[in-house]
């Protein structure tokens, strides 16, 4: 097995798990920070509606030698979080639909 799992490998493991029922519409990685945009469906007063959500996560290698995903970040991650949010703004707000 590869020493460092790529974001695609981690995402594939998540997608293949029973917890996930859909795929992100877009995803990227900046250093160890991953960003994914998801299309969601919900109920509102006017019936069903769709909206987009952004998830941010960080990969790290645990004491057990396995790669894990966290939703908390260190100071080292701040520039990469900024890049991920800028990417999401471009994907969701500036890109022609």
Secondary structure elements and pairings:
Blueprint: H1 7-16, E1 26-30, E2 33-44, E3 47-61, E4 67-70, H2 78-94
Antiparallel strand pairs: 1-2, 2-3, 3-4
Keywords:
97 residues; four-stranded antiparallel beta sheet; globular; alpha+beta
Describe the structure in your own words.
It contains two helices and four strands. The protein has helices at 7-16, 78-94; strands spanning 26-30, 33-44, 47-61, 67-70. It has a four-stranded antiparallel beta sheet with strand order 1-2-3-4, covered by helices on one side. The model has no long low-confidence stretch (mean pLDDT 85).
Instruction: Calculate the terminal CA-CA distance, rounded to whole Å.
Output: 39 Å
The number of helical elements comes to: 2
Strand content: 35-45%
Biggest sheet, open or closed, and with what strands and sense?
A: 4 strands, antiparallel
Structural class: alpha+beta
Helix content: 25-40%
Q: What is the mean predicted local confidence, pLDDT?
A: 85
Number of strands: 4
Order of neighbouring strands in the sheet with most strands: 1-2-3-4
Q: How would you spell out the order of helices and strands? A: HEEEEH
- Could you say which overall geometry the principal axes of the C-alpha atoms support? globular
Poorly predicted spans: none
| CA-atom Rg in angstroms | 15 Å
């Amino acid at each position: 097995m590869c020493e460092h799992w790529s974001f695609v490998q981690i995402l594939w493991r998540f997608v293949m798990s029973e917890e996930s029922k859909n795929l992100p519409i877009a995803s990227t990685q900046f250093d160890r920070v991953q960003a994914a945009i998801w299309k969601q469906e919900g109920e509102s007063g006017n019936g069903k509606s769709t909206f987009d959500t952004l998830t941010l996560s960080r990969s790290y290698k645990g004491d057990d030698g396995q790669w894990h995903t966290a939703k908390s970040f260190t100071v080292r991650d701040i520039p990469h979080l900024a890049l991920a949010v800028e990417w999401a703004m471009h994907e969701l707000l500036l890109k022609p639909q």
